[in-house]
Amino acid sequence: MNRLGVVAIACAVSACAGAPTLRDNAARAKTEGKTVIVEFYADWCTVCKQFDRTVYRDARVQAALRDVRYVKLDAERGRGRIEAKRLGVAGYPTFVALDPSGEPVAVLRGIASVDYFVKFVEWGQIKAWDEAMMTDRLARDRSPASLRLAGRWNVEAGRRDDALALYDEALAARPDTDLQWERAQVASTGGSREAWAAAAAEYLAENPRDAHSLDALRIALLSGGLDDASMLALVAAYVPAVSDHAARLEHSVYILMAAGMYPQADEAAARLVERWPKLRQFRDTLAAVRERDFGNERVAAHRDWVARRLDDLHIK
Question: What is the CATH number of domain 7-128?
Answer without folding.
Answer: 3.40.30.10
